[in-house]
Amino acid sequence: MTTMAPLKTVKPTVQPGRVGVLLVNLGTPDTADAPGVRVYLKEFLSDARVIEDQGLIWKVVLNGIILRTRPRTKARDYLKIWNTTQNESPLKTITRSQADKLAAALSDRDHVVVDWAMRYGNPSIKSGIEALIAKGCDRILAVPLYPQYSAPTSATVCDEVFRVLSRLRNQPTLRVTPPYYEDEAYIEALAVSIETHLATLSFKPELIVASFHGMPKSYVDKGDPYQDQCVATTQALRRRLGMDETKLLLTFQSRFGNDEWLQPYTDKTMERLAKEGVRRIAVVTPGFSADCLETLEEIAQENAEIFKHNGGEQFSAIPCLNDSEPGMDVIRTLVLRELQGWI
After folding, report:
1. What's the rounded Cα separation, in Å, for the pair 181 and 228?
2. 3-class DSSP state for residue 107?
3. Cα distance between residue 135 and residue 129, in whole Å
């Protein structure tokens, strides 16, 4: 009679990994001078998601004209809003704080690691993913901090994440949060931030302008959903605040180049409203999750000057959600929703 030897129990050598959360915003120069801005602009404007026609003519214009002249001008703008204490842009300061506060909110889940990155500039998405993997993360949730989806923002974050992963043999599992342009938590946070800010003013605005970052009209014509999502955000905010289109206006800022961009333009609207007799105004920027050059300089300074130069008297820029309690509620809600099944 043959005796069968008992099978040995083989213990698994692979242990469950940790879960990484990577908050990603657009980007910023490392320094508020022409060389720093030049490096940033070259990376940004060389992305085919941002400037779709990367042909020979564009390369000549970019390298022969834009990168020789624009960095000096933009550096002066950055200096107006620069965080001199930490020697960095407010966008970097705020995004870091958002990550720190999210990490604190998730501290009871010790297998969750939170980090942050910029699509252009530093810290890079590559360094963020490598840091999470080094900490044992085999699953990563990428969080593009853009409420409204667009190819030049949300899609290019995914492009870079996929590019980094394509070079790895042992890839982490990936999830990406969707746009949250009419998410209930986001709309409520916007409304609360607006109401809180208006209560601090010494004047009552006659109307509010919701200014979103602009986009070439041709991108929308090709199928980008950005404009529709900006409209949806504005309509949801009007319902929540009890306002109509005459009291909460939708505009688009930050035009670049000679092509037609989404309209109405914010700067032209400021000029028109002032000339029509509007004297008191407030501006909110619902497409930005953190204050940056486009909100702190372009809106709060440049557009305020346009409004007052044409007859306006009182102007207030409403801060972005940033790392405020309502803003962090939005980020935490999005992250916990997308982490279901992982934590």
Report:
1. 10
2. coil
3. 10
Beta strands in the chain (DSSP E): 18-28, 112-121, 137-144, 173-176, 207-213, 248-253, 280-284, 314-317
Between CA 322 and CA 89 the distance in angstroms is: 14
**Which residues contact residue 341 at a Cβ distance below 8 angstroms, ignoring those fewer than 6 apart?**
none
Report the distance separating Cα 264 and Cα 185, nearest Å: 27
Closest C-alpha among 60, 250, 48, 223 to residue 150: 223
Angle at 310 between CA 306 and CA 311, to 5 degrees: 120
Please state the rounded mean pLDDT for residues 3-25: 71
Q: How confident is the model at residue 292 (pLDDT cuts 50, 70, 90)?
A: very high
Secondary structure (3-state) at 317: strand
What does the pLDDT look like over 271-286, one tens digit per residue? 999 999 999 999 999 9
Quote the distance between the C-alpha of residue 84 and its chain's center: 22
Q: What is the pLDDT of residue 257?
A: 83
DSSP 139-181: EEEEEE--SS--IIIIIHHHHHHHHHHTT-SSPPEEEEPPP-T
Q: Do residues 326 and 192 touch, judged by C-beta distance below 8 A?
A: yes
pLDDT in tens, 198-223: 999 999 999 999 999 999 999 999 99
C-alpha span between 234 and 144 (Å, rounded): 20
> 10 pLDDT exceeds 80?
no
Question: Considering the chain, what percentage of its residues have pLDDT values greater than 70?
Answer: 95
What is the dihedral sign for C-alpha 123, 124, 125, 131? negative
Taken in order 222, 289, 303, 86, the sign of the CA dihedral is negative
